[in-house]
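Input (Peptidase inhibitor I78 family protein):
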Amino acid sequence: MTQTRWIIAFFALGLAGCLKSAPELARLPEVGADTCQGAQYAGLLDQDQTALERVLIMRQIRIIRPGDMVTMDYRAERINFAIGEQGQISRIYCG
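Output:
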């Protein structure tokens, strides 16, 4: 019985390590999934959210701040800019 618990704990820790690298936690869209061409704005990552005011983006975007409610509709061409707790751009993704 004790050996079974060790095995379960071992695999649970291994799974926890995999979750950190899950694609949905990536900070930029993956090359094949970049339907919104959001990767071209990689230079905005970790900049203050006011950096978005200096960039002309002539397409559909959504800025998501901590605590914002967002709709669950998926629009492949839309670029989402996630703003972190410190007011910096923490993630860019399509949808």
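The helical segments are 2-20.
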